[in-house]
Amino acid sequence: MLNRRNLLAAGAIAPLPLWLPGMAQAQSKKDTVVVGMTLEPPGLDPTAGAASSIAEITQYNIYETLTKINPDGSVSPLLAESWEVSPDLKTYTFKLRKGVTFHNGERFTAAAVKFSYDRASGEKSTNKDKRTFANLTTQVVDEYTVVILNQEIDPDLLFVLGQATAIIVEPKSADTNATKPIGTGPYKLDAWSKGATITLGAWPQYRNASAIRLRRAVFRFISDSAAQVAAMLAGDVDVFPRVSARGVEQFKSNPRYQVVISGSRAKTIVAMNERRKPLDDVRVRRAISAAIDRKAVIAGAVEGLGVPIGSHYVPGAFGYIDTTGVNPFDIEKAKKLMADAGVKTPLQLSMTLPPTPYARQGGEIVAAQLSRIGIEVKLQNVEWAQWLSGTYTNKNYDLSIISHVEPFDLVNYTRSDYYWGYNSEKFNKLFEQIKLESRPADRARLLGDAQRILAEDAANVFLFQPQWVTIAAKNVRGLWKDMPVFVNDLSSMYWA
Fold it and tell me: Each residue of 227-268: pLDDT tens digit?
């Protein structure tokens, strides 16, 4: 096992059976689990869409990567047996695992790795990490050896290659993975009942099939926080990772359940569309930031399970600095900034809210707070697919509340075509320095500078680092203690 910080130093779809109340508890618990999820994925190819819900079902279950990210943030071998890294951190030589096959019977070799990474950087790629892969050159040495050349220094590359965007796909099936996923993982898609459930079944030909204790997993989609609690109490769901924080207390005192509170690298923000006036004015963005009481949002939206942040970076991450004092809660200052910007009030803005409870509940709190400085916020509740198409893809929004869960996503602020529309030459130049800096102390210093720029520019309203809650039946084992990435690793789960 290698910790990424140490690197600096060194099919047919079967019909879905009906699920009746209490059935989950009534069934044998030895080989089946029902997992609750807030959002249904738009597809099952994590290289084609940005939704984290895709990885929550597919990563490490259907698809695999060269490396595997562990709950503590370290990486260990998965499809790669071992690797060597050059002293300049630009050349990675991977020895691949032999005897691995895809679900369609094709062999896993170095050619599949090259195909997957070249595809991720290709002209038609919609991979959200396309820019990362564009910097990589993959060379096939032999069937089970690949060399990856990185144009830039990235001490976290082994971690990145364990994320869902780096899955290894089978060339002939790649174009249909969104509906008919083919990977090398221990599970295959059995059924997808749109709007209700996705069912995975253990793949008998998996290379280590005898070690997989769950033979079947049903993912149930429940967005409403009250319904999530009801489903757990009724026994319709066995495990609910990242459940709404509301209602958690009643499970802590109930001997039928276990409650796991996990740390994260997520950043919950009020996203601002800087393409639209007056949000293109830094004074207005800083006014909006100053008008929002982060602690009140944390208390009301996530039951206090969050840590305030002042930039797009979180405590515990390498190079973190505290920037919460750059735009502190100050109503009078917010009013003055609005006046200085010449904004006539009331200013009417819309806020699109995806169906996650933290967004819906947080939106009501933020709207009430912004009304104190003359901003009238029209709340628009949208489904997840609408948020992805309207807000994320088409940039049709003023404000939105969303949690960005990728650990390393400062790079998005260099993308002027990203849905925020942030564009800073100063930040872009600094980020180029960060990418080329191999000395840890200097890299940490530059990361601190980057955080200050985003805070001073009020590039978004930075709210909090969430703590994620998992509620599970007391006998479920193998749950992740922390969540550096959003996955539901079925291979580690079992019933005691």
Answer: 999 999 999 999 999 998 888 888 999 999 999 998 888 999
Burial of 123 (0-12, 13-18, 19+ CB in 10 A): exposed
d(C-alpha 263, C-alpha 361), whole Å:
21
* The pLDDT value given to residue 483: 87
Whole-number Å distance between alpha carbons of 154 and 105: 34
Ordered alpha helix ranges (H), 37-193 = 52-58, 110-121, 130-134, 157-160
Q: Which residue has the higher pLDDT, 341 or 51?
A: 341
Question: How far is 155 from 447, CA to CA, in rounded Å?
Answer: 13
pLDDT value at 10 more than 70? no
Cis previous bond, 466, omega within 30? no
According to CATH, the superfamily of the domain at 6-185+469-495 is Dipeptide-binding Protein; Domain 1 (3.90.76.10)
Which two structure tokens, joined as six digits, stand for 44?
A: 């099952």
238 and 488 in contact (C-beta within 8 Å)? no
Q: Tell me the C-alpha distance between 493 and 496, whole Å.
A: 10
What DSSP designation does 491 have? G
Give the pLDDT confidence of 333-361 residue by residue, as tens digits. Answer: 999 999 999 999 999 999 999 999 999 99
In terms of DSSP bridges, do strands 145-150 and 136-142 run parallel, antiparallel, or are they unpaired? Answer: antiparallel
Render pLDDT for 181-216 as a digit per residue (tens, 0 to 9): 999 999 999 999 999 999 999 999 999 999 999 999
267-466 falls under which CATH superfamily? Answer: Dipeptide-binding Protein; Domain 3 (3.10.105.10)
Q: Please state, in angstroms and rounded to a whole number, the distance separating the CA atoms of residues 374 and 125.
A: 43
Tell me how many degrees the CA angle 479-45-363 measures, rounded to the nearest 5.
Answer: 70
Question: Residue 26, SS3?
Answer: helix
- What does the alpha-carbon distance between residue 366 and residue 276 come to, in Å, rounded to a whole number? 19
Q: Which of 12-26, 107-121, 307-321 has the lowest mean pLDDT?
A: 12-26
- What are the two backbone dihedrals, phi and then psi, of residue 203, each rounded to the nearest 5 degrees? -90, 115
Q: Is the pLDDT of residue 59 over 80?
A: yes
Q: How many residues does the chain have?
A: 496
Straight-line distance from the first to the last Cα atom of the chain, in angstroms, rounded to the nearest whole number: 26
Residues forming CATH 3.90.76.10 domain(s) in the chain: 6-185+469-495
Residues of the chain with CATH 3.10.105.10: 267-466
Residue 217 half-sphere exposure toward CB, CA atoms < 13 A: 30
Count of beta carbons in the 10 Å neighbourhood of residue 492: 17
The CA distance from 462 to 269, in Å, is: 5
Helix spans in 36-109 (H): 52-58
Bond from prior residue into 181 cis (ω within 30 degrees of 0): no
Half-sphere exposure (Cβ direction) of 364: Cα atoms closer than 13 Å: 9
